């Protein structure tokens, strides 16, 4: 990942943490809205012939309006993965930006919850082959995901998630989030 991208990710995460610490809102029904930030790691599954699965890493933040409904935004990038197709070799990487509405269902007395999300994601795939030709593909489309999480305590949870980011890209991740 380029230095500028790393710096922007660090600044975004820091901003989300500082804003989230001040953003709790009481709705008068006994529930206080809950902001959160998290990190995730996993693999992109690209529907391109001969492409390895690049390692994915990302940050996300969101806000739960009540115990079930919320919003979430995320950025996920990847390292370079090898590909070999039609006698060509090269490297490919992917990144995705998304905004989602979320729904959580908490299984009673377990700490486990199921999560669904639906929204819009922009996914970019870029590469370079042995003929020094660059290629790129960008797609903005409907995206969604399902996951399973475990609340370790009221302020920390871990999640495993599968996302469908358009027609050519899937994403499988595990992550952790800090709630405020």
UniProtKB/TrEMBL annotation:
<protein>
    <submittedName>
        <fullName>Opacity protein-like surface antigen</fullName>
    </submittedName>
</protein>
<feature type="signal peptide">
    <location>
        <begin position="1"/>
        <end position="23"/>
    </location>
</feature>
<keyword id="KW-0732">Signal</keyword>
<dbReference type="InterPro" id="IPR027385">
    <property type="entry name" value="Beta-barrel_OMP"/>
</dbReference>
<dbReference type="InterPro" id="IPR011250">
    <property type="entry name" value="OMP/PagP_B-barrel"/>
</dbReference>
<dbReference type="Pfam" id="PF13505">
    <property type="entry name" value="OMP_b-brl"/>
</dbReference>
<feature type="domain" description="Outer membrane protein beta-barrel">
    <location>
        <begin position="10"/>
        <end position="165"/>
    </location>
</feature>
